[in-house]
Amino acid sequence: MSAQVIIIGRPNVGKSTLFNRLVGKKLALVDDQGGVTRDRRMGDAFLAGMPFTVIDTAGWEDDDPETLPGRMRKQTEVSVEGADAALFVIDSRAGITPLDEEIARWLRQQDVPVVMVANKAEGKAGDGGIMDAFALGFGDPVPLSAEHGEGVADLFDALWPIIGEKAEGGQDDGDGDAAGEDDEDAPLGPLKLAIVGRPNAGKSTLINQMLGEDRLLTGPEAGITRDSIAVDWQWTNPANGETRDIRLIDTAGMRKKRNVVEKLEKLSVADARRAVDFAEVVVLLLDATQGLEHQDLKIASMVLEEGRALMVAINKWDIAENASSLFNGIREALNEGLAQVRGVPLFAVSARTGKGIDQMLGAAFELRDSWSKRVPTAALNRWFDDALEANPPPAPKGKRIKLRYITQAGTRPPRFVVFGTRLDMLPKSYERYLVNGIRRELGFDAVPVRVVLKSPKNPYNDNKGGGGNYSGSS
C-alpha cells in the first residue's frame, strides 16, 4: 500500500489547489469562496518521482458537531487516522489566525508527522506569515505557491525523510488502471459504478451503506456533495461468496438547468458529468417519496447519450407508499420516456436498511458484461441475413436500398457498422428495427447500441448529388 499524505487546514488556504498540483490534474473543485470541499478526496500523486496517495479534506471550522461544518470537520479528523504524513497548510499572506492555532493544537495530539506548508508565498507578500508559522511548533515551514508550482522541490525535501522509504516500496511498473482505461481489449478491471440523480435522493447515504462506514458526508441538507468522489471497495456477492472489485463514484445532485445559477453548482454538475464519462455502469437513483420526474429522464438520457450502461434504483423503499403501483408506474414511464433503450434494469433499494443493494450490484456486473460484449462475425451476419429476410428494407421512390453486411466496430458501448448502398435514403424506423433486433437477439439487453451506416463513395459522382458517405447512430 502506498504512503498516505493528508492535506489539512482552515477554509480557503489553497488545499484543493495543492491537491490538484500534486496529482497533476484538476480533480478537485476550486473556487475563491471558502468551504468548497466537503468530502475527503483521494488521488495518486507523484512528487519528483516519489509516488504516494494524497487526501484532500474539507476546511477545518470551529462549529457545533451536528452542523454541516461540524460534520465536515469530523470527516477531516477521521482521515488523519492511518495517514503517514500531514501537510498543514496556512495562507502566508493572511498570517496565522486563531483557527490555525486551534488546528495546530489538535495536530500536536495526533500520532502523525506534520509538514508545515505556507501557501500563497509567491512574491514578498507572504514573508510575514512564513515567519509567524515558526511559532506553531512544526519546524521550518515550506514556502509554496500551489497555484504557480513554486516551492514544490522544497516540499519533496520535507516529505522524503517521512515517507520516502514507504513510497519507494509502493512503486509499480506504471501499468495501472488509467493506462488501460480506453483499451477495449484490456481485461475488465474494477467495475466503475457512478451514482447520479437529483439532490437529496440519498446517493452518498447509499454508498455509505455499501461501505459499512460513514465515508461520505451526509445530512438532511440538499446538495451536500460537490466533488465527484471515487472510493475503491470490494463487494462480496452473498449468492456465491465471490469477491469483486468496485470503484464507487458519488456525484453532486443534478437540478434542472434553469435552477442552476451559482458558479459553484455549475462546476459541481460539470464534475458529475465527467464522472459519468469515466463510469462503465451508471445508477440513476430516484427518491421513492417523489417518484419519477422529468429531470430524472433528462439525466437518464444524458447517461445513454454518453454511451454508458444505465440502471435505475428507487431509494427510500422502506418508506414508500403504494409500493407495487409506484414500481409499475415508474417502469411504464421509463419505457415511454426512454424509447431508445427499453427495459432499463429497475430496482427497489433502501440506503438506510441495505435492502436490494446486493441484487442491484450483481445486475450491474451482468450489465457491464453486456456493454463489453463482442459478437462473433459469423453469428452477427447470420442474424443480419435473418433480419433482412424477415423485414426487407423499403424501396423509396422505387429505388432499392441494398444492405450488404454488418460488422462490430467496437465495444463499451457496442458499436456496429452497416455497409450498403443508398443508405442516406434508409428511414429512421428501419434503423430502429436493426438496433432493437441487435439488442433483443444478440444479448445486449438494455445497453446503448450505436449503429453507423456507410455507403461506398462513388468515384464518378464527384460529390454532385447521390451516393457519398452517410453515417447515423441510434
Task: Estimate the helix proportion, in percent.
Answer: 25-40%
Q: Give the second-level CATH assignment, the architecture of the largest domain.
A: 3-Layer(aba) Sandwich
CATH class type of the largest domain: Alpha Beta
Distance between the termini: 44 Å
**Strand order in space, largest sheet:** 2-3-1-4-5-6
Uncertain spans, ≥5 residues at pLDDT below 50?
A: 28-36, 172-182, 462-474
CATH superfamily of the largest domain: P-loop containing nucleotide triphosphate hydrolases
CATH fold naming of the largest domain: Rossmann fold
Tally of alpha and pi helices: 12
Output the structural class.
alpha/beta
As a whole number of angstroms, the C-alpha radius of gyration is 27 Å
The largest sheet, given as strand count, sense and whether it forms a barrel, is:
6 strands, mixed
The gross shape turns out to be: elongated
Strand fraction: 15-25%
How confident is the prediction overall: mean pLDDT?
A: 81
Oligomer: single chain
Task: Work out the count of structural domains.
Answer: 3
What do these coordinates show?
With 474 residues, this protein is α/β, with parallel strands linked by helices. It has 3 domains: 4-169, P-loop containing nucleotide triphosphate hydrolases (Rossmann fold); 191-371, Rossmann fold, CATH 3.40.50; 377-454, K homology (KH) domain (GMP Synthetase, Chain A, domain 3). 32% of the residues lie in helices and 20% in strands. The protein has helices at residues 15-23, 68-80, 98-108, 127-133, 152-169, 203-211, 263-278, 294-305, 323-337, 357-371, 377-390, 428-441; strands at 4-8, 41-47, 50-56, 85-91, 114-119, 142-143, 191-196, 229-236, 243-250, 281-287, 309-315, 346-348, 402-410, 415-421, 450-454. The strands form 3 sheets. The chain has a 6-stranded mixed beta sheet with strand order 2-3-1-4-5-6, sandwiched between helices. The chain has a 6-stranded mixed beta sheet with strand order 8-9-7-10-11-12, sandwiched between helices. It has a 3-stranded mixed beta sheet with strand order 13-14-15. Mean pLDDT is 81; it is low at 28-36, 172-182 and 462-474.
